[in-house]
């Protein structure tokens, strides 16, 4: 079994304009999955910008009832040391069925890039084979490929 056949990848936030704002991701249904890892990328990040990646959950597929979970990935940028870097957070066994991430840039401007979510199961995953999210244009697995 390979990784691509055992995870579902979805782009949940698209590139956000340079500034200070909160971007909320697409709500994901965790039914049949053990966990989800969010990977947020950044472009140009101004000095002193505070970057936060947090996760919310709810029993309903609705933005209005989402509650922020304990624990976030937060980084305060120094002299452009956060340009083109990542924040990553992994939620294993969320307590509610629906989750989403939020990316917050505050204090100084930052370009929030895409945020991808990787939903996964255990080795005996309940949802296999995985159908990739609609934001994945193509996905392939090659076993022992020959050289071109």
Describe this structure in words.
By secondary structure, this protein is mostly beta strands. The protein has one domain: Jelly Rolls. The protein is built from no helices and 9 strands. Strands 1, 2, 3, 4, 5, 6, 7, 8 and 9 form a 9-stranded antiparallel β-sheet that branches.
Low-confidence residue ranges: none
Give the termini separation: 24 Å
Helix content: under 10%
CATH architecture: Sandwich
Global outline: globular
Strand content: over 45%
Overall SS class = mainly beta
How many domains comprise the coordinates? 1
User: Count of DSSP helices?
Assistant: 0
Count of beta strands: 9
Radius of gyration: 17 Å
SSE string, helices as H and strands as E:
EEEEEEEEE
Q: What does the main sheet amount to?
A: 9 strands, antiparallel
CATH-derived topology: Jelly Rolls
Mean pLDDT: 86
Q: In the CATH hierarchy, what is the class?
A: Mainly Beta
List keywords for this structure.
148 residues; mainly beta; Jelly Rolls; nine-stranded antiparallel beta sheet
What layout of secondary structure does this protein have?
Layout: E1 7-13, E2 19-24, E3 28-29, E4 35-45, E5 50-58, E6 67-68, E7 73-76, E8 86-92, E9 98-120
Antiparallel strand pairs: 1-9, 2-9, 3-9, 4-8, 4-9, 5-6, 5-7, 5-9
Summarize this entry quickly.
The protein is mainly beta. Helices cover 0% and strands 48% of the residues.
